[in-house]
Amino acid sequence: xxxxxxxxxxxxxxxxxxxxxxxxxxxxxxxxxxxxxxxxxxxxxxxxxxxxxxxxxxxxxxxxxxxxxxxxxxxxxxxxxxxxxxxxxxxxxxxxxxxxxxxxxxxxxxxxxxxxxxxxxxxxxxxxxxxxxxxxxxxxxxxxxxxxxxxxxxxxxxxxxxxxxxxxxxxxxxxxxxxxxxxxxxxxxxxxxxxxxxxxxxxxxxxxxxxxxxxxxxxxxxxxxxxxxxxxxxxxxxxxxxxxxxxxxxxxxxxxxxxxxxxxxxxxxxxxxxxxxxxxxxxxxxxxxxxxxxxxxxxxxxxxxxxxxxxxxxxxxxxxxxxxxxxxxxxxxxxxxxxxxxxxxxxxxxxxxxxxxxxxxxxxxxxxxxxxxxxxxxxxxxxxxxxxxxxxxxxxxxxxxxxxxxxxxxxxxxxxxxxxxxxxxxxxxxxxxxxxxxxxxxxxxxxxxxxxx
Length: 453
Fold this sequence. Notes:
Layout: H1 13-42, H2 49-84, H3 88-123, H4 131-143, H5 145-160, H6 164-188, H7 193-215, H8 233-267, H9 270-306, H10 310-337, H11 339-343, H12 350-363, H13 367-382, H14 386-413, H15 416-452
Helix pairs in contact: 1-6, 1-7, 1-9, 2-3, 2-4, 2-5, 2-8, 2-9, 3-4, 3-5, 3-8, 4-7, 5-6, 5-7, 6-7, 8-9, 8-14, 9-10, 9-12, 9-13, 10-13, 10-15, 12-15, 13-14, 13-15, 14-15
């Protein structure tokens, strides 16, 4: 029977999590290559305007990814909980509703950003020098929005069924295509930023076809079926309610990137915006293993929560938290010791190195604590606690980081204030999220565990 496949209520919890997390982490790292490789190649072009122009599009790309997360991170945990309860039929309806809703959002977002790209890019900090590069990249990227959203938004439903290797191959396929096409389009065909965007769209198109082929095939436990595509208001509300946490992560990331870019443009110019583009790229790479492990734990935690296995849920939370702290400590040490080596992956221009090295150290000074927020918020999402997940998505970025990014430079800290604001938000947001998760989830589950023993 399909409900007996990938039963996460059996076997070792750490093994179950790692079985999913290892390929999912690798998939997350590969997924970052879509954008990071573009930046590495464009950073080798003369000057820093192409790289800076690409950086200006990142808030829009983040919003599009947020819509994908709204459907993927909203629907996939619900599927895991339904599977744990033995209700595969409802899980398939959630899968179908998530897909339909994703297509509607993708089409709407494409139209809106194509119509408003000039005022939006100028609002986000584009100058006369950098706008042509940002516009050239964004125009082509937006034409492939549906590919991007299908590959990112539907892949979590593959992982939620326990097929993490297939999920890894989804992004692996796209990354390989992207890496191969990037130098051809950018340098050989001399397409510059347009070549980077075209390579990304083609790569995401390949990933989207792969995802749909699997979810409609015989191997999938939960299949994408035509009779499950009709939207149900009840299901959409549940998907949106839980998915808003993932959406707000991207939306607030976009907000902070906009605030950072405009503030750095005002206090330091295009050079500092280019340095911030590199720092954001390093952040994406370094934080991906934390995201991968946390996402890998969600199907296991959600399945066991649905099955009423409180002890195993607590064990999963402990294991994930310990591994996250160990990894983030190692990553923090490497960044503090070798910031120049990391920046040189993107550019060797001395002006960017001069401003980027001290900024990178400040930005990552409290990364260990920030990683605890990712772990804590992942638990809220896995167990369907949408209000908690949404609140902490907003707290660190929108409530703490963005206001401080505007305030600290004004109070005399200059461009350093932008990076200090990030560190302060990591401290407050990370501790608040993790300690709240401990108080409202972990300890109450312990009481249920003792009552059931």
